[in-house]
Amino acid sequence: MTYDPSSANPLAGNPLQTRADVEKALHDLFNPLLPFFSEGGARVRLDGAAAHFDRIAADIEGFARPLWGLTPLAAGGGRFDHWTLYREGLANGMDPEHPEYWGEVSRTDQRMVEMAAIGFTLKMVPHLVWEPLPERAKKNVAAYLKHIRRFDYADNNWKFFRILVDLGLEEIGVDFDRSLTDKYLEELDGFYLGDGWYRDGNVRRIDHYIPFAMHFYGLIYARLAKSDEERTARYRERAERFARDIRHWYDEDGGALAFGRSLTYRFACAGIWGAYAFADVEALPWAEVKGQYMRHLRWWSKQPIANRDGVLSVGYGYPNLLMSESYNSAGSPYWALKAFLPLALPESHPFWQAEEAPAVTTPEPVPLKHPGMVMMHTPGNVVALSSGQQNYQMRFGAEKYAKFAYSSRYGFSVEADERAYANAAFDGMIGFSDDGRHYRVRESNEAALIAGDTLYGKWKPWSDVTVETWLVPANPWHIRIHRIETPRPLNATEGGFVIARADLDADTCEEGEGRALARSATDISAVLDLSSGVKRSGRAHRALPNTNLICAKTIVPQLLGDISAGTTVLVTAAMALPAGEAAEAVLAGAPPPPDLAALEDLFAREGIDVSAIQVPERF
């Protein structure tokens, strides 16, 4: 018998075509958690791995995060048999005299995050979690929430958490300082960039937190807030504009662009589409919105994302602690249940009644100036050429934000050892070494510009080495031009897209001067050296295991060469496609190298002096 890893996925086998299928999926995801509830119901401890916050807060994640799905289920009339357990847990967790008390807050704390789901639940279904409580428990709950909301929340999407708590307190008739609500609503507006895009805080960080946090919470507020018509109208209008862009972060099969942090939240990426329905914002035709939503859930139903007991793992396409953030506990993945927000809507809602429409894709590149990306739709995939993002706070921040190319089908890899230059994947990146052991990659930019569908970045792997990189779409290829100025010789390795590696090394690889190719039963990935006067050798590199987000074992085509002191220009073409005749035809017709002088003229015509523009760490 062959073991099928996807059999551990609670969504496996669910057709995910109807509202009833989605409701079943929620039950199947929640039920494996039941054995892990504490005796008093206030804590859910799933394993022994730790996050940077205390163990109690991690247990609260396991308790609270499922409410993002269970609350809409109940609001929409769905059956859930364990509200008694949640009432007991809520009462005990907020009771200072109970052994399972959640603890006081005296500063910015993870508990603030989890109280948002509780505020949302109090707002949506007070008859299930508030009204049946005895008076003493009600006083404790009110006191705990009023106390926690007084402290400063992190200067990013966290500010919405106080807003959601306040919606709950308002619903149950508890008085609170509304000036704090207004303050955070105003500060959240300060993150707005335009064209529907926000930044997540005061850094150049524009990732999945914009759809599954900033807009997700904003649309909840737009639906549930009382007497704030001007702001809720803005939230709706911004979200409507955003849809025209964010749909290009999803491929035709339902996969989302693998980019940025917190990817262990997985199908939380469906939350934006469900939030449009929840708030009755038909940003795109309902058929397209529903198609995006359902395809994304189906994509995840095929991945081995759970442990053998059916509990969601930390990881992305499979259990993987290496790619996780320091704030990921075993309960963290259950933010994925934000995807179930449209269960609050009846079957008769036009979202549920619509027939799914295919994804809107285009062979032409789609520039997105705010995240600093150019999107390219290829078969079964969406590729983002990227420049201009910054993140110094996250583990593997360079890999999660600063690669040249990201993909929904092939994901990206994180590096396992900065002292193992020869073993690095460098997919979507170029790595430099001056000692053959350690290496440097792009971490941030001194300048990041977009002109039409071409991206430019200026960056320094060392203080005395400068690299200028142009990214040019040539669908399904993309071309990277690097102008490197260095006072000493360097080694350089540049990688294409990773593909899944077959057992018994049953992949077909081609390695030669200026060319590397990896071919599996399902995919082809290639890199070509288009440089003039520089020789690089090709290698099909079997990367270290568990470094890629989607596949545990991968192979990546690379170009390796020496960089002399002085100025060197490297030109690389990269592509990856599903295997087949069409992919073979693409391989036979590699794109010509762009004219670097013409690219420089392009930015000059935009009135931009590339040497003069600096990208601040903070806006």
Characterise the protein shown here:
The protein is α+β, with helices and mostly antiparallel strands. Helix content is 30%, strand content 19%. The chain has two domains: 10-353, Alpha/alpha barrel (Glycosyltransferase); 366-605, Beta-galactosidase, Chain A, domain 5 (Distorted Sandwich), CATH 2.70.98. The strands form four sheets. The protein has an eight-stranded antiparallel β-sheet, with helices on one face. It is elongated and about 80 Å long. The termini are far apart.
Key features of this structure:
five-stranded antiparallel sheet; 619 residues; alpha+beta; 19 strands; Beta-galactosidase, Chain A, domain 5; 2 domains; Glycosyltransferase; eight-stranded antiparallel sheet; disordered C terminus
